[in-house]
Protein: Mycothiol acetyltransferase
Organism: Gimesia aquarii
Amino acid sequence: MKIRPYHPDDLAVLKEITVEAFQGVSIDHGIEKEFGIINDHDWKWRKARHVEADACREPEGIFVAEWEGKIVGYISTWHDPEESIGYIPNMAFVPECRGQGMGRKLLEFALDHFRKLNLSLAKIETLEQNAIGNHLYTSLGFKEIVKQVHFVAPLSTSSTDEN
């Protein structure tokens, strides 16, 4: 596996990989299961936009994994030098490359990137049902700090008129 910097022409492929990889482990997917499609946009559209946001925020913090010249995964990072924290918002691989240690290598690459920036901490989030991610992150030294619960409330007037 080769790890290289992100190029803007990678974006479409990264979005496709992300949507496939986050099926069942995305907050947006959970929202759609509860409330349906929002404003004519499904959870896949919203999740793909997260990758666009990563590319706008800090494109030099995105690293692309290639195998035999084909993009097979990526990790996105950004950092806040004043906080001295590096953030990892997204990481995804195509199905045939999961479970082969590539995610570990990409995470180690991102952690080295943060060390070169002289940051103190790296932060990553995952859902409870992501058993593979939970195991991988703790094996690399991440410690669970707190569990977070996401609440969503519909904002239509009919849902608040029941008083």
The two ends are 59 Å apart (CA to CA).
